[in-house]
Amino acid sequence: MATKISLSRAKILALATMLLPVSYIIPGVFAYYDEFFVFVCAFFHLTTSRKRFSRRDRWIFFNIIITYLIGLTSNLQSNLIVSPPPIIIDMLTIYKQFLVFVLLRKVLSEHERQVFVNFLTPISKFYIILTFILALLSQFIDIGMTFDERYGIKAFCFVFGNQSAFGISVVACLLIISASTLPNRKFVLYVVLSFVTLLQTTKGVIYSFLTVSFIIFIIDNKANIKIRHLVIFAAAIFLISSYQITTYITDYNSPRMHLLLNSFKVANDYAPFGSGFATYGGEQAKQHYSPLYVKYGLLYVYGLGTGHNGKHGNFLNDNYLAMIIAQTGYFGTLIYIVILFQLFQILNEDKRSSIRYKTIAMAAFAMLVVCSIGTGIIKSTNGVFLFTLLAILPSNENPQNIRRHMDDQQNI
Asked: Is the pLDDT reported for residue 181 higher than 90?
């Protein structure tokens, strides 16, 4: 009986996880599902966790609480948004991906983790094969899954309506397969299919994943990242993403650049802790059209205004770093950097997972960090999806046993 309950729990969590990318595709039906998912994770943690938080988990959780206190204090001081609902929703939204990561790290035993992986692996394989075929087909036939053309490639987005969001779904599937016992020679096939598909997104943030994966594979066969490697990653990502950097960040006419530049003005004007929750760069600030957008003239910037003038504010929720800087100030931004460093340490110090999993995981994390600079993807449902997998998929088993499982699969 105990085994059946264990299997059901792992599959329920897998199904709940699968709904995250689905909620991105059909948001009307699953509005705020990613916020609801945080409570699902809390339930699993409170009812099934076998271990206490690790030291790094506690440190991340502590920093999240400090950020909440900073934001609420700023709300009281700035008096820009006084209604509790948008403030509470924005509180949950700003660091929901980190909450999910911490809450889910200890909820599954090794057996349950394998059930979780085995449940999602066939779906991931099918998804990678299907999107590979459709992506190639879209280069020659218009099947309604491409946007503009860049680098001579028709930008493929499947049914997501956004190339980066689609690319993250492929990365997530590859991450799941990397955590399975699939033999390496077969895993390479899915890597090739995924990389060919990802190239057809034409997005710099997705190319950052490809770049970091390749560099890790080249420079270190144990996927142990050193400080000097981070410099190499940053330089390579800058070169690969030069088009997006020029278009989205360094172009002073870009709405994302306006958001980023003005976030520093907000941080200065509302020092030391920023303007508070639901006031800048997030969905709630967009829905309630924050007074700051009027104060700093963003009302007249394409994509940041209201009505026809701003094309309904398409870019108001599209720069995560700007949101952190403006709403929590420089102190809150420093806390954000500390959290990222703690997450990096957790992933980098993983000694039990396979090399291939760790390579994909570190590259996926690097991609999410890059996403935060010029987009809001890190806090989207797809961002939560990836952080969920990064929390659950690392193995609890001895590395020698993992290799033995793979050898057994190889001989079948």
From this structure: yes
